[in-house]
Amino acid sequence: MEEELKCPVCGSFYREPIILPCSHNLCQACARNILVQTPDSESPQSRRASGSAVSDYDYLDLDKMSLYSEADSGYGSYGGFASAPTTPCQKSPNGVRVFPPAAPPPPAALAPPPPPRNACLTCPQCHRSLVLDERGLRGFPRNRLLEGVIDRYQQGRAAALRCQLCEKAPKEAAVMCEQCDVFYCDPCRLRCHPPRGPLAKHRLVPPAQGRVSRRLSPRKISTCTDHELENHSMYCVQCKSPVCYQCLEEGKHSSHEVKALGAMWKLHKSQLSQALNGLSDRAKEAKEFLVQLRNMVQQIQVRSAQAEKLPLPSRMSHPLDQISHCTVKLRQTTGLMEYCLEVIKENDPSGFLQISDALIRRVHLTEDQWGKGTLTPRMTTDFDLNLDNAPLLQSIHQLDFVQMKVPAPPILQLEECCTHNNSATLSWKQPPLSTVQVEGYILELDDGNGGQFREVYVGKETMCTVDGLHFNSTYSARVKAFNKSGVSPYSKTLVLQTSEVAWFSFDPASAHADIIFSNDNLTVTCNSYDDRVVLGKTGFSKGLHYWELSIDRYDNHPDPAFGVARIDVLKDAMLGKDDKAWAMYVDNNRSWFMHNNSHTNRTEGGITKGATVGVLLDLTRRTLTFSINEDQQGPVAFENLEGLFFPAVSLNRNVQVRPWSGSLEQGVTFPAGGRGGLAVTLPLCGLLIFFSSVRAGIKCWGNAVFMFRRRCLLILIYVTVSQAVSSG
Looking at the record's lineage, which domain of life comes first (predicted)? Predict the structure, then answer.
């Protein structure tokens, strides 16, 4: 944005900027330096009075005062016309030629009487020549709003205050004169501001205090250029400038459309904001385009290096030039956007409306400049290379080819293949007498329901463990080998049965660091007063699953949460705060269901030490239900559940829990005597009988196995009788 705040003549921040009719700005002192005098007969007004056709941007011979120089890319303003002798000039930091004061005129006795002259000014940016009236530079409005933006920008810079009079490397300022409003270092103060004469009465303050006084000094509100004592109150739509009441009374805008200043201020602010939105989109596209160009350059460099370090192609200069051009253009666009945002912050309606129309046009013009193929690469990453293939052909003719055969089918090693919970490990080898080289193997499994095979592993290893299978499911596995000649036939198909009984414990790898584990990861608590999340090691994606958790410690009435979650759930907040968990949180009196930080179904009844919390995940019906001490807690908590879920708990240091039960794939769960989660397959009918009998009889692991077998037999008899009655 700094480029927007610097004068095109002196290259420094604007001081007392004025607005030219072409909407560009100049320091008042710089405008005074580039003024030239022209005879009345050569003024644009006299030319128009004589009937010469001119345009607003081409003022006849006055354009000779703004001549483009190919040698220095600057603009020269001459003290006369083509017939007048040229005047030596100096060049400003941005290339605009600034002329010293004219030489003193010859004595009156020798020189003819001078013709009447007009003051002319040529804009250094658009080269439009302007003739000043009798008011001179006072006829141009002061850009108070730009002064405010510059003040804020300078105050916001963290750099130390520097002397404003040092010519080369400005030193750090030592004092500031409140009357002169200038920062001085010690040598410049002694040289330019001696403590004697009229300057002795000036008040010198430290630089920091001077910056504060600058910030606190109120900025003047823009006033009418024709009536300096009048504030702007209306806006002329035709003239596109604010006007005062006295201008309206004098009839200068009698036939023009005039609107309220405040309404036009809001309208132009809205239009400028909308224009900035479009320009912002173009700037984002330009940033992405620059990334694309840089990637293209890297690809070209890599390809050139791979092609035996050949020199870069001549077309390489195209993307580099385009990168340089787009970078400069993007910096200018970003500066314009930042400047417009600062302008929108100003609360001076008249000052804003003095420049808003030109700013809106400039934003639209900048946005248009990004179109029409500007963001299209001028070349591709592909380029032609002429390679000498004679040595390669000679080497090919000297090759002695050996025929390679397709590998034999691998042999699955049954003694090393096994299943654990919902994972399966398979091992295979090549036939003992096979001498054909093998490059890799492809392992395939079906979906557990007799469906199509799909690849689960491709590589050189001869052993693979597949995780995330369904419980109580039968999978078929086969493997084949491959090399450059082709793919071998499949091995014999191996049938694998995943566990009917699913054990699970809490997972230290995915838990929050504050979680404390004990009892072989079956008991968890926390060392923080904040809620922390821990997950079970086993995930479920189908079937009916039920587990219970015992509250071993419950102090100070906290509210732990129980439920299920995705593997990437938040670990440093209560379970259910995000959309990756479905939970019930409960205190000593009541409970709530929570998902995505939405609390529902407040239910009376809480927990104490020794209580058990049950979680029933029915992925057949896609529901989740909770219970406390064997009694269902509230209605069905959540519905339409689908995907992979892990048992989950959130607690703080006042709570300690351990699992009592496990999970059933297509069945239900019973207490396992503190040995973690246990899953058994049973028909779903007879479910209530199974629940009541199991919870009543099992007290230890030895009894658990015995009682479980008895109740399974009873349930099978009950199911058989029920089916016979229904069919009869």
Answer: Eukaryota
Q: How far apart are CA 683 and CA 663, in angstroms?
A: 14
Sheet strands (E) in 9-69: 17-19, 25-27, 36-39, 67-68
Q: What is the DSSP letter of 93?
A: T
Q: Which residues pair with 463 in a beta bridge?
A: 427
463 φ, ψ (degrees, to nearest 5): -145, 140
- The H or E element spanning position 97 is strand 97-98
**Cα 705 from chain centroid (whole Å):** 58
DSSP states of 282-330 as a string? Answer: HHHHHHHHHHHHHHHHHHHHHHHHHTTTPPPPGGGHHHHHHHHHHHHHH
The CA distance from 624 to 641, in Å, is 8
What whole-number distance in Å separates Cα of residue 499 and Cα of residue 684? 18
Could you tell me the pTM of the whole model?
Answer: 0.37
Name the nearest CA neighbour of 506 among 526, 533, 535: 535
Task: Write the CB contacts of 694 (distance below 8 Å, at least 6 apart in sequence).
Answer: 670, 671, 707, 708, 711
pLDDT tens across 186-230, in order? 999 998 999 888 888 898 988 877 665 555 455 566 677 777 777
Integer Cα distance of 133 and 121 in angstroms: 11
